[in-house]
Amino acid sequence: MKITNDERIILNIIKFSPIILVIFVSLFISNIYLTKMEEDFTREVESTKQKYLIQNQENVKNKIENIYNLISYEKEKSEQALKSDIKKRVYQVHNTAMNIYNKNKNKKTKEEIIFDIKTAIETSRFNDGRGYFFIYDLKGTNILHPIKPQREGKNFFYVKDTKGTNIVQESINIATSKEKEGFQKWFFHKPKDSSKEFEKIGFIKQFEPYNWFIGTAEYIDDFENDLKKELLLKIKNITRENKNYIFIFDDKGNVLSHYKDSLIGTNRYNIKNPLGKYVVKDIIEFAQKSKKGFMSYSTEVNPENLKKRKKISYIRLINNWKWIIGTGFFLENFEKEIEQKTKYLLESKQKSINKIIILSISITLVFILLSFYISNKVSEKFVIYRNKIQDETNKTIEKQRLLIQQSKMAAMGEMIGNIAHQWRQPLSTISTVATGAKVQKEMDCLSDMQFNSAMDKINSSAQYLSETIDDFRNFFNPNNNKKIAFEISNTINKALTLVNAQFTSKNIELIQNVENNELFSLENELVQVLINILNNARDALILKDNQRRLIFINSYKKDDTLYIEIIDNAGGIKEDIIDRIFEPYFTTKHKLVGTGIGLYMSEEIVLKHLEGNLCVSNKKYTYEGIEYTGAKFIINI
Hints:
Blueprint lengths: L4 H100 L5 H13 L10 E5 L4 E3 L22 H9 L5 E10 L2 E15 L4 E8 H23 L4 E4 L4 E3 L21 H12 L1 E7 L11 E9 L4 E8 H48 L7 H25 L2 H30 L5 H29 L6 E5 H18 L2 E7 L3 E5 H19 L7 E10 L2 E8 L29 H12 L3 E11 L2 E11 L1
Parallel strand pairs: 12-14
Antiparallel strand pairs: 1-2, 1-5, 3-4, 4-5, 6-7, 6-10, 8-9, 9-10, 11-13, 14-15, 15-17, 16-17
């Protein structure tokens, strides 16, 4: 039997329905996969950001810990070297004294030998003249003191230093020990500063022929000052070679090491940064309190000429030297690294999407071939169902017409929702008052005054409903699309009247700062633009649960141009999409909520009908002591 046109339609359905099904299933599965991919992408970006932050923190921490370990190692090594040096020098002097004694013990008197020994030793100096040698007998009497010769011949057995140490007694104990030598620490005046005593480290060795001990010592602070200079130079060379930026301050705020040579030797304790913060002072206080750790701050010292000066540094206190050492990284560089990594992840995601598209197309092609094969086999069997299928087809067409009609009505859904919100309260008032009056009437307790009051309330609510009908009728009236002169404050109030109910129900505060300027333009189209932007802000704000929901509406005139600003506090628009929000069909909302044409149409109306401009940016601002971020739309006409 020859295949009729209806049967051809059936066969076409058989051919193409699987294709549509495959496409739908493919899109559905792809959507699920892409949604999951988007979630994974977001998590991976956040994980990458956290990983990079930890990695940067570990890098700067390791740099400072390495410097700290270097200082500790050099200090310990230098102390050992100092001990070895003074021990070696005492040995040399001891050998000199022993040689004089051995050569002259049978030739000269004891007094003559002692004179020769003192003469040979008293002029011996080391460490730029700071170091000298002294001799005491084992009863505590001074034999030789080149710096303070007035001590010679006097007994110091019971003399103590400022810490209560019996210096000479401790020296005698070392000299008479089994080893007959050893190291010792005590406090003593410096040659040029007798106002206080300084800690010294010395070495004592017994001189047996005359029951003496010979010793020498070095002031620890002099030794440490020399060591500090060497270490600062070494640290500067290390940081210069590795292009590291390491700073060192003392607890008074003096700069000991810095990439900027001009700052070394200056005091920055009371220097403020552009934000009015004492950076060095805060770093010192942080180090004294925490000993070591990470600190975030803004600095005016910017070696890389970055726009943003927010910095995270690792700070460590060298307690016994009262040094604060640190280094860090600028968040702007960190953000650039994250941006590059995010770009790479985005490219990987796009490659995965391309693979999904290729797979979907391949599966679709397979089913197309299969459907053609099946349609040729079953074509004759479907002829007898022609009428039934035609009826079903007609029903389907009717359903399609209903769907088209419903889609036309969807545009009015927003306004109907507003009407419903605005009518709910007055209708409730009418119902409550009428019911109450009826009950009072049945109970014969309705006075004239109560009746008149109830009727006034019902009349007032009815008048409000009538005004609402007029507001929405005027908005939808096509005859209102004519240029007229109008006050901008009244126009803004008209727009707010149409949307206010839904904003109130969502706890959104509308704050106006509107100058009452006159404009000659299309008022109804301006109202439509305002409603679109306000609804867009509303949709963003209802996602914010734990903060005030604010919308600011400002209007002012400047250089013959009227400006209308609408600012929310919903967090702003992502930088990677802010340039696309005026594109047709571009939306970040769910497909059941947003169509992606509201802002596009708003821009078209402003540009082509109102002969103005519409732009958007993100804005940070402070309101009632709290800092917010939000989208800022500006209409200028």
